[in-house]
Design brief:
Elements lengths: L1 E10 L4 H12 L5 E2 L10 E6 L2 E7 L7 E7 L11 E4 L1 H10 L3 E4 L2 H5 L1
Parallel strand pairs: 1-6
Antiparallel strand pairs: 1-5, 1-7, 2-3, 3-4, 4-5
Length: about 110
């Protein structure tokens, strides 16, 4: 079994809702909806579950003027043991976004891990 993950930064002049739908079309996933689970403590996050993956898009905190897209295996959908092999999906996600004209790059590890 594999654990898929990808973190990318998107540059866009679109509003979050518009960008979420553009990302969903580019990745050929179900439309992204505002997450209402409460796990983001007041931040607006658009999410979609598709193909056993969780897709989440949020606007970065100022002074950044970018967006953060994460893709991770849906750990609630499968019985993960922790022995899964990591599968870095960044290149695939960037390719799909780029084909749709969405300006994206691999997330800077400093933004991920401080």
């Amino acid at each position: 079994m594999f654990y898929v993950h990808a973190d990318v930064t998107i540059q866009s002049t679109l509003q979050l809702e518009e960008l979420a739908q553009a990302v969903a079309r580019a990745l050929a996933i179900l439309p992204m909806q505002v997450d209402t689970s409460g796990k983001y403590e007041g931040d607006i996050v658009y999410a979609s579950k598709c193909f056993g993956l969780d897709f989440e898009l949020a606007e970065d905190e100022p002074p950044l003027s970018t967006f953060h897209l994460t893709v991770n295996s849906d750990v609630d959908a499968f019985d993960f043991s922790g022995s899964e092999k990591d599968l870095d999906g960044v290149t695939y996600v960037l390719t799909m976004l780029g084909r749709a004209g969405i300006d994206a790059a691999a997330r800077d590890p400093k933004l991920l891990y401080g």
